[in-house]
Amino acid sequence: MPIIELSExxxxxxGERPLRNASVPAVYDVSFQIEKGEVLALLGPxxxxxxxxxxxxxxxxxxxxxxxxxxGRDVSVKGQVVPPEKRGIGMVFQDSSLFPHLTVRQNIAFGxxxxxxxxxxxxxxxMIGLVGLTGFLDRYPHELSGGQQQRVALARAxxxxxxxxxxxxxxxxxxxxxxxxxxxxxxxxxxxxSMTAILVTHDHEEAFTIADKVAVLNAGKIExxxxxxxxxxxxxxxxxxxFVGSADFIEGEVTADxxxxxxxxxxxxxxxxxxxxxxxxxxxxxxxxDIHLIPDPNGIAKIVSKxxxxxxxxxxxxxxxxxxxxxxxxxxxxxxxxxxxxxxLTATHTVVFSASSIKGRG
Amino acid sequence: xxxKTASFLIASLIAAPILVILSSWRTPMDDVFLHLMSTGLxxxxxxxxxxxxxxxxxxxxxxxxxxxxxxxxxFPGRAIFNWALVLPLAIPTYVLAFVxxxxxxxxxxxxxxxxxxxxxxxxxxVYLLARNxxxxxGKRATEVAxxxxxxxxxxxxxxxxxxxxxxxxxxxxxxxxxxxxxFGAVSIFNYDTFTTTLYKAxxxxxxxxxxxxxxxxxxxxxxxxxxxxxxxxxSKRYIPAEKQPRSAMRVPLNxxxxxxxxxxxxxxxxxxxxxxxxxLSIGAxxxxxxxxxxxxxxxxxxxxxxxxxxxxLVVAGALLMxxxxxxxxxxxxxxxxxxxxxLPGTILAVAGIMITTSAGFLTGTLFAMMLGYLTRxxxxxxNPIESGMARITPHIDEAARSLGAxxxxxxxxxxxxxxxxxxxxxxxxxxxxxxKEMPITLxxxxxxxxxLAVRIFEFTAEGDWERATLPAITLVLTGLLPVILLTRRxxxxxx
Lengths: 362, 495
Fold this sequence. Notes:
The structure holds 2 protein chains of 2 kinds. By secondary structure, chain A is of the alpha+beta class. Chain A has 2 domains: 4-88 and 162-238, Rossmann fold; 246-358, CATH 2.40.50.140. Helices cover 22% and strands 31% of the residues of chain A. In chain A, the strands form 4 sheets. Chain A has a 6-stranded mixed β-sheet, sandwiched between helices. In chain B, α1 packs across α13 and α5 (93-102) crosses α21 (465-492). Classes of the chains: A alpha+beta, B mainly alpha. The A-B interface holds A 58-60, 83-86, 89-91, 93, 95, 97-101, 110-111, 113-114, 153, 156-157, 160, 166 and B 391, 393, 395-396, 398-407, 409, 413-414, 417-418.
């Protein structure tokens, strides 16, 4: 049985948010299920409704229609919506929401008021050990770094052993080094205590590192909900393909032999997903790791620019039609600007969309 | 919902005095009013005009120059002058007034004399805000100007001063509101202004209605200043706030200017604080054996009791408004409830008396007095409470709720501890302001409720300066409390 279940949840903000069109729902007809111990990432650009969705589950917002079931209990019954403090959730926010007047120990113990003193102390020690801040128990929040504050916030949220942990862009205020370190740590901690969690983020790398499943949101709707690998390699919609990772789109033609011809070569038309594969005008998604550059004086493509990225070089390549594709190559090989190259396809799958589905986008 | 209704009631209570004053025009003009208009109006107008202009020039020159010296230059004693120059705020204007008269400085009983006294008492408003402006906003811009070839001094005049201008103006408006509202100092100087005239209309000509009508001129002037102040405050926004004001790189002075700067700061401090405090101390010491009796403790007790009552009342009202605003956004009501600081106490007293006399059962109670305090000092309590409230971000509320603490537990365990400092500061500020307050207390006190401020008024009315020193030094010592609070905050700022 799933531990969290949303069915056809819709939420529209009334008035108050002048920047948003009040008639457009912030979350529209969203349904999904999460199994116990699973980590789901809600991934989307700002305004896609991901935070609203999280706040609906937390109980800070009330859905207009639809059902939210937490651990077998319907918390969204009209007229008797369960308030956040009665839902058994844990939450970590993007800014430090630690209580500034309480020490780390008191912060972690805050949600443990139903336990007796000894149990409280035991839990606090367990949690502080889990996030690796033993020895910081008597400090105040302002004496901690940003990363430490977020770790305490995590410990505080986990201490009462919630049904689900809700993480609202918890790393976005940290500097990049700390961010990637925290991602791995949080992933390890969640797995260690088999915590069910939902993470809101606009960063696909973060979603991929932490989550078992990713739901990509656009304009209040779920575009695709899948494993990180499927989301990246086999996006169902043009939006997902474009938003998650970098991708180029080049025109192609479906032929009778079941292949898709493009100016950089023929793609098999088998495993692919996406829009109509029989439409005459289609585009093929090319990820930088789907193609490989081979130096060739007779090659039709030309290197326009290079970005050094440490372990790899990202080349921007101009095709005869004027289209641009990107290719990532090992950084030990260095191709000069303006060099002619041939393009080899390394993709094991083909993702195509009908050209009409991408009009006016990107 | 309860909060909204209660806030609406508080706001209407606070707005009531203005309506009462204006409604006095529904009745015909009586002889007293006509007499006041024909004999006194032009004199009162010119007196007020001279006073306001004089104090404006005086406080601006003193406040800005002192702020500039202590904020941007380095000279002997600067670190002490930095906070000590705020100390005159502890001395009520009427105390400084009678001390200067008692010292019988040549030519003090003149227009220039009262301007001098008010300037010495009120320049700290301009000093504080100008100093704040120079320290927080002009810093980076001044550095940019210097990198573009300006000297530190010319950069100050071209960049820092114009940038701090809205803050200076804001401080000036506060000083001028105090000037306009002043009753004690001008009556000691026998300098007729609106406040003394309407006191006379009520106290010796027995026409409350004439006093109310006369008050409406003052209401208009007060709101003019309020409007200017709010404009200055709004235009402060164009200053990009630096998140962490870095410690200032002050320019060290050399040679003669070094000592001139010290001497200048010391002179002001000497005249505005050291001399008066010394005079009061010596005076109080001589009358101590005679006057420190049970009657004195009666005055002191009533002062403390009334101030404590008012502090509780005003803080409770401000807390209620602040809470309601947090959840229901009642910005207009909050604004309405906090404009009272611009209204002179004499007006609030007249309005309070009118309300209590028309609702007979309130006469002889503390109602008019407390209403006056509530109106005049709401903003004083509101500011620290509101800034405490702003520190409790919505996420802190939500974190508490996600940890199972809703309602009462969230209020007692999270919000109240975080608001405590604001509540205490608000209560202290109101407490001390009420202690020093003269016209509302004087005019609306029920029989037998004489306080220290009333005592000072009575002694000075008889020219008995020496006996006024004991209650005066008591007030000054109490007044030091919020000033110390303030200077401690100053020291936390880089200085």
